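We treat protein structure as text, and this decision shapes the records that our systems exchange. Because each token names a local backbone shape, the row as a whole describes the fold. An entry from our holdings is shown next, in its original layout:
>
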Amino acid sequence: MISFAYLIIPVVSFILFIIFVFKWQLNTGSTSGKRLPPSPPKLPVIGNLHQVGLYPHRSLQALSKRYGSLMLVHLGQVPAVIVSSADAAREIMKNQDLIFSNRPKSRLPDEVVYGAKDIAFTSYGEHWRQVRSICVLQLLSTKRVQSFRHVREEETSLMIDKIRNSTSSLINLSDMLVSLANCIVCRVALGWKYSGGDTIKKLESMFKEFGELSGTFNPGDYIPGLSWINRVNGFDARVAKLAKLFDEFWERVIEEHRDRKKGEKNPNDISNEVGEPDLVDILLEIQRENKSSLDIETDIIKAVIFDMFGAGTDTTSTALEWALTELLRHPKIMKKLQNEVRQVARNKLEITEDDLEKMPYLKAVIKESLRVHPPLPLLLPREAMQDSKVMGYDIGVGTRVIINAWAIARDPVLWKNPNDFNPERFLNTGIDFKGLNFEYIPFGSGRRGCPGIPFAMAVDELALAKLMLNFNFMLPIGKELNMSSLAYLIIPLVSFILFIIFVFKWQLITGSAAGKRLPPSPPKFPVIGNLHQVGLYPHRSLQALSKRYGSLMLVHLGRVPAVIVSSADGAREIMKNQDVIFSNRPKSRLPDEVVYGSKDIAFASYGEHWRQVRSICVLQLLSNKRVQSFRYVREEETSLMIDKIRNSSSSLINLSDMLVSLANCIVCRVAVGWKYSGEDTIMKLESMYKEFGELSGTFNPGDYIPGLSWINRVNGFDARVSKLAKLFDEFWERVIEEHRDRKKGEKNPNDISNEVGEPDLVDILLEIQKENKSSFDVETDIIKAVIFDMFGAGTDTTSTALEWALTELLRHPKIMKKLQNEVKQVAGNKLEITEDDLEKMPYLKAVIKESLRVHPPVPLLLPREAMQDTKVMGYDIGVGTRVIINAWAIARDPVLWKNPDDFNPERFLNTGIDFKGLNFEYIPFGSGRRGCPGISFAMAVDELALAKLMLNFNFTLPIGVTERDLDMSELSGITVHKKLPLLVMATSHSPYL
């Protein structure tokens, strides 16, 4: 499955840019007589980006051996000097430290860290000096670090107890170390006990997203003028969303600290236990008393805490993880360290920080680990603030400088046997990591050196000592250590660009139609075809193209021919007259992996398997009788939603969230027998479907350009898909096991299916499997695949249809009033609407039909594929051609609909037009063999929910917002949601009025 809303693909525009500037680029690059550092040959536009590789610290080290320890590379259009020697590092970070103390601007920290108002990313200047002064003197001074000693000692002891009490014979030490760092930093920075609860998990996921975005190729940072690509490919939207999440989180943290001053206390807050303020307390005190010459805005506090938490957790746990990894690889060194620790501890049960000064070998082990595995092998880039000379070479203003701390720490000129792990090299030597020895700079040096070294070392030394005192560690039987490291700077774009350049001429001569009469087609580009014309909103852009090229139009999505159908006649030909020929689905990597080889109903190839699965769905799961059997679920959950809105303390109601919650509640009970409470398990499932949606909208070269599927292995797409498939499989496995356990008398507290004796859909499928009610073998994977469809399709389209219907009613108050009158008249004196009442509400049905016409949830129906050569409306359609029906365009065809852009429910009164697939001018749920089998289920929910909302409330827009102001923007995707949430004021009224 692919969301054509996302097939805008930054790659596409980037490729075109390259093609047009290729010759121009070859003639540029004059050095104006300057003596620049040696540089590897560069390619047009991308410079040396293609040479950065998976592990840039290693690939840049390899290049430096050929081009020198001061080497100029071009990252796109940005010149960057790579420093790979201690002498050059000394020159940059000591002799000319001031000149090279700036940071290059970057979109991500500018947005997420409040215009880079923190210490790590901010530009050099007075603001940076003041913020650094606060950090060094107030937050990370030796005295302050010591004041949190009790936190480190308590949390390391708790980790030891956790390992000792573990029931598993195998310990995931990596997770333990991450948890330790989180525990300590949570208490020190925020004053919160880390319990792994939702709030902290949310913060962890936000920092993870920040890490992923940091490793995402951002054209605007490297090629001036291409920043617009970030708006198109979704990067800007992800950054803006993340910035909003972080801001809301830090705002909550700060408000809770201010509330504490008023005597209100968060149950997670432990800062008052020993009387020590946490870092937020200190910053708020500085703000209140104006102790700094800098005006400490709240945004600065948030930015500084961002640094404290981000840097304090990641590097601390990483350093410990590598140290323990090396000790496991070198048992003799580990034994020697254990002997030292145990000798110092003697008969004591606990190590304290006082003992650490008597452990020189412990310190040597950590130093050697930081040499071999510096947490940041490439230090954060600096930027020259003026023209300068370094080691005889000219460095221009604005040049980036990247210091390869990893390469310097492995320089054989400076270190004997540099690839060996040998802590003895640090005994009886003054070499330290504080930035004075430039052959060893794991934390940088100079003005831009890390100010948090004492804090990180205090944690790492104490944790390692306690681990060595209390345990003997060994690898699992028969296992060897994998020393691979994760790398983010993989830029699949680069390889793709190179491929384009080399095949450019070849592509120009391909594409003969071999005498066939093909549908009209817009001109295409080499390789990418018409992908560049798909746009952010493909249903709209393809409609616009069809007005020029015809209602049966051929476009090329990369190398894949696709016929776009934009007329009722064309749709009738595909979905009725030649339905069998066009009933196949194209293969795609994502559903094949996540949905068990596409064993479901939505993505399965046409054939006997699909027929049998569809038969089960239509006759057993989604029959009218089955849908009616869940009537009590719909009536209960819609009533609960009404109560929730009525009892809301807020004057503004987020109706979008309410409708999503309603859909989730109903589908959870019907499909898996669980009460939806928003708890971790269901939230996890929601996040998995969200990831599926994001991956569906990720450009997958292998699906469109044969031979490029290898790119997915390189850019991480395959890894994400495999991880998601594993998560889904574990989830469905748990669901099925719980249902089987129920048969044995064991019961999940969330499980409510036995309350009225109705089995849920999983029960039904397991019964079919057990009794072999079907003519084919219902494997467990098929059950999982079918439930995947039920949950995914049942929640998304149902809530979307309701959201758009209510949006249109708010834009048209007279229509809403007319609908309310009908509902109240049918309800009479009853307090509740039931499904029996719905058949007496023709205007309600007309409103929903009209909303589905104007806003079909899936505007481009899932693609079909021709199973043989055929002719459609006089044109030749070859086997394997994809067919995409633009249901949105057909429903707005002025030939079929009078004033098609107007919202007018009256057009559906006294007419037989329906959405069941018989009227091809109106196909919001498709038609034919591949039509949606869940229409009756979705409509039962939407009609009942809308009727109850109209009966119980008067809805108005927020004060100051008019019907004309209501934002109707769409969120691009397979299912087209409203971009902004629907915020309304709901006034409860008596149903008697």
Remarks:
- The chain has a mean pLDDT of 85.
- Residues 298-329 form the longest helix (32 residues).
- DSSP finds 36 helices and 17 strands in the chain.
- The longest strand covers residues 70-75.
